[in-house]
Design a protein that fits this description.
By secondary structure, the chain is an alpha/beta fold. The chain contains 16 helices and 18 strands. The N terminus and C terminus are likely disordered. Belongs to the paxM FAD-dependent monooxygenase family.
Length: 471
């Protein structure tokens, strides 16, 4: 049963609507806007770029933990009209092109997740979220660059000089945005790893044999392992284009997603197999995005006021990985789920900190796993040799190459746990276990009543005595 059919698409509506100002109109900002509007809050999104620039090109992978959220939000049909469904990974060597084996996602595991593994273009996902957010009543302003954020006053200043305010400010403008700097009090650019992702598209008409192979493998994702390099490729736009992501040596400083495509991919590949070189020659100019490690922020909520960070602003992920987009959407889903229970202004701060509490450990673990996946793909030396030998051995036996013993098994188990997670269920659990209890305590306090301790047996005894006397 799909997530959409197993849940109601009519979420709980807040009884106390407030205003949210979201800084950043990318996937994180739009998903958060849609989620908040679905539960009845007022939302304005500010995006510094125009819409075409914000849409961007390139591919994006939607793992089951992401697609299940969007299915629940009523976007199943819109997604499946654009996305390709994949259940297969195919592995080869970067330098030789030798086949290492394949892995087919377990059907029962995917069913348990209530989602699907989808592949589509970033622009298609952007349009689906934008259209849904607007349909639900969100306001989005493009060309609105935020130059100053005042969490204490809950205000932002635009480059035009305009001042805007809201009950809550949400920073969704990425690792280099003004929101992260406002919370930290300084600009944080992370630590270079020496790797970069070169992100581009390859028209399928220029590589017909390769595109045909993708089709024969039921929209498989191709992954090539190399020495300090790796390639991830998968079909998008139906099968009209192939999304191509090369992990290789970083040739510059501070490369970002919003940069213009300027890199000739053949000039940055090294020692690539001949059968992959054809794919490289057909590639359009690529965007170079530096892979950087960022410290974990102790707080995602400002001490000075109601500013909360989500997505890359809170937890920058290595570019091109499966879970970066998913974590950003999960953030918006959890924030909205918590604020669906808002009934008074005094709850706002506690809900913001509950959001932080629910998300930090999850994101930290998933991000560590994504970095491990990059190092797994680009490993060299004895570890890489052992990995390849184990995968070839499993393939020779007709087995899935990520199952069994060894480092690959660890990767597979992480996938099972991460894919099966339901962030909205976690938010519901928090409300039932802690939020409602806190509200009862606050309600009793406001009425001037004392709240008996859960371990106050004298109170329990007196209640029993009253009951007995009544009989």
């Amino acid at each position: 049963m799909s997530a959409e059919s197993s849940r109601s698409n009519l979420p709980l509506q807040t009884s106390f609507p407030i205003s949210f100002l979201i800084i950043g109109g990318g996937i994180a900002g739009l998903a958060c806007a849609l989620a908040l509007r679905r539960v009845g809050h007022h939302v304005l999104v500010l995006e510094k770029m125009d819409r075409n620039a914000a849409r961007a090109e390139g591919g994006v992978r939607l793992p089951p933990n992401l697609s299940k959220i969007l299915f629940h939000w009523g976007l199943r049909d819109a997604l499946l009209s654009k996305a390709s469904v994949t259940t297969r990974l195919l592995f080869m060597r970067y330098e030789s092109g030798d086949f290492l084996g394949e892995h087919v996602w377990d059907a029962d595991m995917l069913k348990e997740t209530r989602g699907m593994f989808l592949m589509m273009s970033h622009a298609e996902l952007y349009d689906i979220l934008y259209d849904a957010a607007i349909k639900h009543g969100a306001q989005v302003r493009f060309g609105a660059e935020v130059v100053d954020i005042d969490p204490e006053e809950q205000e932002v200043e635009l480059a035009s000089g305009e001042i805007l305010s809201a009950d809550v400010l949400v920073g969704a403008d990425g690792e280099y945005g003004s929101s992260r700097s406002a919370l930290l009090g300084e600009r944080d650019v992370g630590t270079p790893t020496g790797l970069a992702v070169y992100d581009t598209l390859v028209p399928a008409k220029d590589i017909p044999e390769y595109a045909q192979k993708l089709s024969e493998k039921k929209n498989g994702q191709f992954v090539a392992f190399g020495k300090g390099q790796a390639v991830v490729a998968y079909a998008i736009h139906g099968t009209d284009d192939v999304a191509f992501q090369l992990y290789g040596r970083d040739t510059g400083d501070d490369g970002r997603y919003e940069d213009d495509p300027s890199v000739d991919v053949p000039q940055v590949v090294q020692d690539i197999a001949q059968k992959l070189r054809l794919l490289v020659r057909g590639a359009r100019k690529a965007v170079r995005i530096s892979v950087r490690e960022h410290r974990d922020l102790e707080d995602w909520v400002s001490d000075d006021g109601r500013l909360v960070l989500i997505g890359e602003a809170a937890h920058p992920f290595p570019p091109g990985t499966i879970q970066g987009t998913a974590m950003a959407v999960e953030d918006g889903a959890v924030l909205a789920k918590l604020f669906s229970h808002l009934s008074s202004e005094r709850q706002i701060e506690s809900f913001l900190y509950a959001f932080q509490e629910l998300r930090q450990a999850r994101v930290r673990d998933v991000r560590a796993g994504e970095f491990a996946s990059i190092f797994f793909m680009t490993a060299d030396g004895p570890d890489a040799a052992a990995r390849d030998a184990a995968m070839r051995g499993k393939a020779a036996q007709g087995k899935n190459v990520l199952e069994g013993e060894g480092s690959a098994e660890g990767v597979w188990e992480e996938y099972r746990v991460v894919f099966g997670y339901d962030c909205e269920d976690e938010a519901d659990d928090w409300w039932v276990q802690w939020g409602m209890l806190r509200e009862r305590a606050n309600g009793a306090s406001e009425m001037g009543a004392s709240v008996p301790s859960l371990l106050d047996f004298s109170a329990a005894t007196s209640q029993v005595q009253i009951t007995v006397a009544a009989e």
